[in-house]
Amino acid sequence: MTIDLHTHSTASDGTTPPADLPRLAAEAGLTVFALTDHDTLAGLAAASAASEIELVPGVEISCRLDDAEVHLLGLFVEPGHEPLAAELDLIRTDRARRAVRMVERCRELGAPISLAQVEAIAAGAPLGRPHIAAALAAVGVTDAFTPDWIADGGRADVPKHVLSTVDAIALVRAAGGTAVLAHPRSVKRRAEVSDTQLATLASAGLSGLEADHPEQPPEVRARLREVAADLGLLTTGSSDFHGDRKPVRLGECTTSPEVLAALRETAVSVS
């Protein structure tokens, strides 16, 4: 088995339609993959209908840990779970409000972008910072994710509605799923999740850590495995595939069949 538990489609900020992702996954040699779009379950039905390999229903939830944003993977969630769907809808609705204000702030700072331009880039997907970053790049801003522009706390950043990570774990578990913390020590993200924070999340019901990830070098992956072992957490590997938006390939990092089986058992035990 070749397993990738973190991918994105055009239902959020990927560039591959959800109905096309199973074919690409199979062509990449995967036998199991999870569709984990940001804060939405909208692509799961199309992906499931088109899939000839196993699809793990999932979502990547934007949440808050102390004063930083982190991302939580909910795997094996029930797509029809109403409390989960309602919370994700609230997050997306607020994202649109936030995007409008961020575009306004970018314009105030001298970047001649428009909401219509950002919406065209999103092509129907929920508006997010990657779409604003692409619009900024089109007018010459080479690195939008800096304090000068739209990094967390940056001059054009706008606070958004967000769950605490502990509450997000509880929501995933209530939806019959199992929770894995995505890229906790990515070199491209501003904040790293500390050992102490990981211990708190483990006590709150976290099942695993995404150790093998393209944005985490070998020494970071090794340390995460050590911490996970100490806390009784599983470790996963995933590509975090976004299509053409990121230079990674499906299956670039993978999860072992044994870990998949353990995650499945964890999800079943709380459903």
Give a structural overview.
This protein is α/β, with parallel strands linked by helices and 271 residues long. Helix content is 39%, strand content 16%. The chain contains nine helices and eight strands. It has helices spanning 21-27, 44-50, 82-108, 115-122, 129-138, 165-174, 195-203, 218-231, 257-270, and strands spanning 3-7, 32-35, 54-65, 68-75, 163-164, 178-181, 208-212, 234-237. Strands 1, 2, 3, 4, 5, 6, 7 and 8 form an eight-stranded mixed sheet that branches. Strand 7, helix 8 (218-231) and strand 8 (234-237) form a beta-alpha-beta unit. Helix 4 packs across helix 5 (129-138). The two termini are 25 Å apart. The mean pLDDT is 94.
List keywords for this structure.
271 residues, eight-stranded mixed beta sheet, 9 helices, 8 strands
Number of helices: 9
The whole-number mean of residue pLDDT values reads 94
- How many extended strands? 8
Structural class from helices and strands?
alpha/beta
Percent of residues in β-strands: 15-25%
SSE string: EHEHEEHHHEHEHEHEH
Largest sheet: 8 strands, mixed
Please give the share of residues in helix.
25-40%
Shape: globular
What is the end-to-end distance?
25 Å
Which regions are unreliable across 5 or more consecutive residues at pLDDT < 50? none
Overall radius of gyration: 18 Å
Show the helix and strand layout:
Blueprint (H helix, E strand, L loop, with lengths): L2 E5 L13 H7 L4 E4 L8 H7 L3 E12 L2 E8 L6 H27 L6 H8 L6 H10 L24 E2 H10 L3 E4 L13 H9 L4 E5 L5 H14 L2 E4 L19 H14 L1
Parallel strand pairs: 1-2, 2-3, 3-5, 6-7, 7-8
Antiparallel strand pairs: 3-4, 4-6
Helix pairs in contact: 4-5
